[in-house]
Amino acid sequence: VKVKIPFGNKHLDAIFSVPEKKSTYGVVLTHGAGGDMNFPHLMSLAAYLASHGVLCLRFTCKGLNIVYRTKAFKAVVEYLRLSDDYKLSGVFLAGRSMGSRAAASVIRHLSQEDDDDFIQGLVCLSYLLHRPKLQSKLRDEDLLFIRCPVLFVSGSADEMCEKQLLEGVASKMKAPKKIHWIDKANHGMAVKGRTTDDVMEEINTEVFSWLRENIGLEHK
Fold this sequence. Notes:
AB_hydrolase_fold, 8 strands, KANL3/Tex30_Abhydrolase, TEX30 protein, NSL3/Tex30, alpha/beta, Rossmann fold, globular
């Protein structure tokens, strides 16, 4: 279902992947610095989640400014929170690369503003921890403030998220967290000798099983 989400005096293009049965929880998903919501990895994950009963709303927000991307993500979360069509008990915010930084930033901001439990967790695909060869400047400030469960899915050969560095950040985080390493994958999740579909299947099943473990944790 295609929708246009109001954002300032503009609109963000978005698509709902809707499961057959009514979903109580949803995932909001966005892309990295390049590309848009039709990035193949996002389409694959959205279709997988919907086929397993989880509503997924993916959206496009162009722009390389993290503050702008964060505001856009926040507008999408508010849109979903107030939606009459899909009355959800909670959502997980998810993004790829720069999109996951924006998702983390939104969670940090919203947790300071209100303490309802609409946001259930964060999924970071290829989290952008540092620029290539600039390991001294870590983009970890938002992660250290987050309290809800966090899943990282990263390639063990990601040039923008070195394995030891992410494990170091994770050890300092207060949130319940899990890192799933895709062996030998780079930042784009490409692995020599494996097809894209094969890698995506590993990512999709990992994300879904983690969601299932964490859905409604507050209510169990």
